[in-house]
Please model this.
Amino acid sequence: MEHARSITPAMIAAFKADYDADREARVLTAAVTHSPLGKAAMDPMAAAKLEDSFSVEVKTRGITAQQKSGRCWLFASMNVMREIVAEKCGLDKFELSGNWLGFWDKFEKINFFLESVLDCAERPVADRTLDWVLNGISDGGQWDMMVSIVRKYGIVPASVMPETAQSCGTAELMRLLNTKLRKDAIELRALAAAGGDTAARKDEMLAELFKALCICFGRPVDRFDFAYTDKEGVYHVDRDLTPVDFYEKYIGLELEDYVSVIHAPTQDKPFGKTYTVKYLGNVVEGRVRHLNLPMEEMKALAVAQLKAGEPVWFGSDCGKFGSRDDGIWDPDSFLYGELLGGLDLSLTKAERLDYRDSAMNHAMVLCGVNLDAAGRPDRWKIENSWGETAGRKGYFVASDKWFDQFVYQAVIHKRFLSDAQRQALEGEPIELAPWDPMGSLA
Model:
């Protein structure tokens, strides 16, 4: 930085004098000294407008808890699918196994990582793409990645493969798995350079890591009996099911008919086009595809699906303008700029994406919307997976303004798409770089 200017003592003296002369700044200091910024910045009158009443609402059956893991995208998916099982079987409550999906997701990501390393075998270590790949695997994912897992491995009730300490708190295991994967990457790259049998060695690595996953999560079952008592007190048992049998018989959604619609208003991503992301996935034969649409179209599709009685899986930036305690997300309810002495924190959604201020980091389920007199949404009901102690007994309310600014993805059944949207969906997807913000994982 040849022409960089340094901070001088004179500048510091002027800044201190400015603060000392600002009585309001000193009052604000007192306000935040003993309170978290979010609590101090919250406007209770604005937050009170986010009422727990909705003109359109889809029935849900209880709140799930992903615990200390990054499996929100899987829990949001299961929260959509379990409603079908509960309805078919006459159950008030029912849960699918997050441990089952998490096990197979991690195992497939391990293989995806090793295959990506081999694909980058001729790249230097300092290469940006290889550097991205070597970030390793995580708990996070996308809707299409869930589809790939369920199609290949099926799904089971939570009672068949219950949670373990490691599935509920994955950080330590993920750190160790990534250390092993990077060690394997070193070996595979050396073997590839020497012309060795990388396929055979990779299979041996998979066997080692499969055993490690079984130790931490339990061995996945081959067949099981599905036994339950319905809300009328009648006992049922369906014997000797495979996980794929269970999915097809008790859920049976044509998952490929659900489309990932995104709102990415950046100049490099024209609306009406489909996108995929290089080196993003879990199952190597799977796919990740997004249809980029204007926000008004995305919201209209979400409202249509809710009106039809179907919840909507969606991805957002949950870290912006929200309160876990109060169960809200709303930019107008948090006066951060004013609290910090009048800072201008305004950015457009495109600017947030381009300058890495925001991206999707959490998936949840839309289960309601309130429409105003003109039929426009003004607030949304959200089913979260943070347990019943978070929010409003596990549910949250988001303002439409927050939805506009911080919702990036919604999964919509094809039947709700217009002819033009269907035609756009059939286009050849444009491949984005691995580090593109739309490749972020929920």
